[in-house]
Each structure stands twice: as C-alpha cells, then as structure tokens.
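Hi everyone, sorry if this is the wrong subforum. Our group has a chain we'd like a structural model of before ordering constructs, and none of us has done structure prediction before. Sequence below.
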Amino acid sequence: MTQFLEPPAEFTAADTSSIRIIPVPYDGTSTYRKGADKGPAALIEASTQVECFDIETQTEVHIHGIHTEEPVLCHTTPEDLAPLVRARVSDALRSGRFPVVIGGEHSVTIGAIEAIAEHLGSGRFTVLQIDAHGDTRESYHGSTHNHACVMARAREHATIAQVGIRAIDKSEWDTMDRSRIVWGWEISKSKDDSWMDRVMAMLDNTVYITVDLDAFDPAYLPATGTPEPDGMTWRQVNDLVRRVCRERTVIGFDVVELCPHEAHHGSDFFAAKLVHRMLSEVFAARA
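Answer:
Right subforum, don't worry. Here is the predicted structure as tokens:
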C-alpha cells in the first residue's frame, strides 16, 4: 500500500501515527462522469510528489505520523457503505487519531459524519461543506444516501454551513436554510474576505470539513464528477481552511469527487496538495 506523501517508514506506522488516511474508492451513485472510485489511489500516488515541507505554515506535518489504511471496499449501496466508513472513522477517533477520508464520491462522507456524531454527540459540531452543489435532497434515485443527499443526512446530526454553492434543485431551494449558505457568486464578486466572516459566524466550536473538489473552478481542477463554472480558487479555499483551523477545532475532514483523467494529471496533484495543506493547517494550529 502506497503511503500518503511516502515519508520515511518511521512516520507511517499504524500504532504511532497521529493521522489516519482512510481511502474509500466508492462510485456507486455518481450521475454524470464516473471514475471517483479511482480517486483515492490517484491522489495518494500523486502525493508522493508533494514536498513534505509546507511553506505557509513552515512545518512538516508528516513528523506527527501519517498512516494510510487499506481501502474501505463496498460494491453495493451507499447505505451499505456508511457503516463501513463509520467504523473506520470511529476507530481513529477512539484511539486519538485524526481521520482523513479520501473519496470516492460524496456519499462516502455520510459514515464519517455519523462517526463524529457518535463520538461527540449529535448537535455538538458543525459540518462545513465546501462544494459546488447543495447536496440537500432527502432522496435521489431511490436512495437517501446518494451523493446528492449528503448534507440532508449531515443536518440530522449537526449544524451545517455551505460554501461555494452554485447549483441546486428547486426542491432544495424551497427547503434549505439559505441563511447558512455563502453562494459561489457572492465569493466571486466579493472584493474582500467579508464572505469568510459570514462563514465563521455559522460555525460551532468543533468543525468537520467536507471538501467536494467541484467547489474549485474547473479551470483549476477539471477532473471531477460534476464540474461547475464560476468556482472557488485555491487561495480562497486555503485561506478559509486556515482561518477555520486557527479559530475553531477541526476534528476531521474529507476530500471527495476526484475523477482521474489521463489528460489532467494536474488534478490528482492538486487534490493531494490540498490534503497536505489542510493537514498542515490543522496541526500548525494545534502547536
């Protein structure tokens, strides 16, 4: 099993590492471009080319130990997948490790959120969603655990904050709490970081972050399942993550919806670099 970042072996041991990378190569409910099941392997392979030293935090997060687990495998429904992911994330939390779930399509997040709720108690944290899509449908294509339903399931366990949203169904518009959304167009048109202040006001003390890579403009990252124009930039997402890490306690995160494409290897590296940057910010804030 290739280890994330491929640092020296002394920093990847399961029993001493502070960070658990949990690959979930699942693509059971994608409705546009398939291939998210190949995302974890591509991201982890690309991570071996990421420099371990992070310039912005001036840290090497791998010294805390990063262990990449065997993939969570499920070839049936997202309802079957959720308890498998929940078990892995719960194990990480019980042992004091920091969980990072790598998708796979967005339905992989549901089990992680269930594990956080089990660990902390429902209603005691916020799920911060950075995404192009609302994902708040109660059911889609006959499933309540479809990738289009992940935030509907999240709000059963936590408060939610949605950032970068620029595509929703009319039924979502009619039922979602729009006071807890910072729309993509608001970020694009903003001349300062005031939109970030609004995000921070939505967050409880403890935060779980879920990043759907289609949050980024496809000019930056085209290899995703459902790309949407007018997306966020690398800098906008990184600055938001930094602020959340410094002003709140981040208990875990996931990065989902990488769909590798042979013409867009840069997307794999982009996603791997994002995971490294997020980990760097989390652990720099704890120092």
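For your construct planning: The domain at 9-286 is CATH 3.40.800.10 (Arginase; Chain A). The chain has one domain: 9-286.
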